[in-house]
Amino acid sequence: MSYGLNNFLKKILPSGLFYRSLIIVAAPTIILQIIITVVFFDSIWIKSNKGLTRSLIGEIKTLSDVYETEDQAQINFMTNQFKKNFDFVINIKDEDLPEISKERKYSPMDRSLRRELKSAFGSDSYWFDTTSYEDVANINVKSKDKIIEIIFPKEKIAPSSVRIFILWITVPSLLLISIAIIFLKNQTRPIVNLAKAAESFGRGEFIKGVRPSGASEIRKAAYEFDRMAKRIDRHLKQRSEMLSGISHDLRTPLTRLKLQLAMLNQKELASKMSNDVNEMEAMLNTYLQFAKTQTIEESSATNINKILKEISEEKNNRNLHLNLNQEIILVARKAAIKRCLNNLIENGLYYAKNVYVNISKSMNNVHIFIEDDGPGIPVNQYKNVFKPFVRLDQSRNQNHSGVGLGMSIAEDIVRSHGGKIELNESKYKGLQIKISLPF
Q: What is the CATH number of domain 298-438?
């Protein structure tokens, strides 16, 4: 039962920290004000209204009893006293009680009048109206063969303090909740900023610095996140610079090897060794270019459609089919994204006859589908595709010009943008590559 209640509360309660905190602050205030209002209304206002109504009906009953006597002098004297002392307007009518009732079923004032009039005069000997006039009420009671009409101010039975009480209950509550909203905004804003910074850092974007603000715990979390981001960024730069330096330094001995191989008399052996040296040089050039892109480029608004069109124009291949129905713009490293898509499309064009590129978007992500009609890849080899320097020559023709870094670089670029890359069988019986990138 407790588990079901928790699930129900999770569904109906907001998920955001600000709104949950607002409920924690505002709910007790509202509940307390409701309880105070109900207690006041039931214990004070209703009882006060009941006492005033009973006193008024007692005065009217006294006047009605006087009118049933035959002493006209006494009737005139009591009428004048009631008009003078009780602020009544008294009229005597030779007619029947009105037939149209103007009682309000859910009005506390009308309920009190109906209860007291029925107790004093019976069910068919009275009529009252509290709606026709704003400040006065009208009561008609039957006395012998005449109707006594009494018009009196509503304040006699409706204490005006109830409006003041409701005003003082409502205004402070709204003021306190408004102050709570302002303070909660100031406390949750640093958390939101920290979450956005973490999300941007997870996508590989450059974080200039997170300014600590808010409560001491939030400031400490922001400060530690900033230090962590700088350490990770420094580590990545050192790794890239180190490997770039190693790759660059290796080009000098490779060049010497190529010169020495050119001077060998055994041309067949020299040709084979030269091919290996060229492949190694291609690997180094590929990594140098990738490392340079990773360390220099910053994120900016990038139009994915334009990148795909640029790749199509550069390839100038009729077997590359683009289906770009939606304009997609996201914050990314343009050169890195172009390199990723270019690698994947280039692989598809090499191993297959036709490559089909489709693009779509959901609420939070852009999806890029690259499909071909080639031989495909076995499902059990999907994970190995993304390993550096791995080429699946058993399932696809051996690529003599590649070095096995294309898919690995593409995955690294996608993951550095906070996205994911998946492999599946395409509808053309080849390979489908699905790239999902967050907006």
A: 3.30.565.10
